[in-house]
Design a protein that fits this description.
Oligomer: single chain
CATH superfamily of the largest domain: Nucleoside Triphosphate Pyrophosphohydrolase
Shape: globular
Largest sheet: 8 strands, mixed
Number of strands: 11
Order of helices and strands: EEEEEHEEHEEEEHH
Number of helices: 4
Structural class: alpha+beta
Helix content: 10-25%
Distance between the termini: 53 Å
Number of domains: 2
């Protein structure tokens, strides 16, 4: 059986068919099959949204996680509840490191400072139709007083932030009230790793 690589893709043509706030490119391509032959020519549109950083905000002393909630037009168009519970996140700007994006977005969207950052993972959001990726961090924060409305008015942001116990956030994942995929990954990861994080950050490991 043939093991494919990037060299097993032939780009016949690539055209930008839409360019606005986002961009859509149309590819005509073919690729090698597992049997060793080649597919017929196929045409696919790929959504170019940019790449993002997301941050799960965790207070190890209080064993609480901060969530944000904001209007999402994609959720609305899909017929889902349009105010989504999410992690702090933002698009990577040119010449900006992943850590710089994480710290900037924590302050802009939650009004707190990241005291430490831990890398969680790097994910493709929807590989069938977009190049978008998301780098996920966990930030140590002081959750006292984390609440209220945040975001940048000139970017149309209206973001509510609040904290809750990690176990309660996990309950929201289990019953489907948190349906944003990065938030689901972040909270499930935190459930598995929070005791190790507390040890790493020198915090007592017995849950409150």
């Amino acid at each position: 059986m043939h093991t494919p690589s990037r060299d097993d893709v032939e780009i016949i043509a690539k055209d930008t068919v839409y360019k606005g706030y986002f961009q859509i490119d149309r590819y005509r391509l073919r690729h090698r099959t597992y049997a060793g032959g080649w597919t017929d020519e196929v045409m696919r549109e790929v959504f170019e949204r940019g790449h993002a950083v997301a941050v799960v905000l965790y207070d190890p002393h209080r064993d609480r996680v901060a969530l944000i909630e904001q209007f999402r037009p994609g959720a609305y168009a899909a017929g889902w509840h349009p105010w989504q519970m999410e992690m702090v996140a933002g698009i990577i700007e040119p010449d900006e490191s992943l850590e710089e994006v994480a710290c900037r977005e924590v302050e802009e969207e939650a009004g707190v400072k990241a005291q430490a950052l831990v890398s969680v993972g790097h994910y493709l959001i929807s590989a069938g139709g977009t190049t978008e990726t998301c780098k996920l961090f966990c930030a140590r924060v002081d959750a006292e007083g984390v609440d209220g409305i945040h975001g940048l008015a000139h970017e149309g942001e209206d973001i509510r932030v609040w904290t809750l116990p990690v176990a309660e956030a996990y309950g929201l994942v289990r019953d489907g009230r948190i349906s944003n995929v990065i938030a689901v990954i972040a909270i499930q990861w935190l459930m598995l790793e929070r005791e190790a994080l507390r040890q790493q950050w020198g915090v007592a490991t017995s849950s409150p």
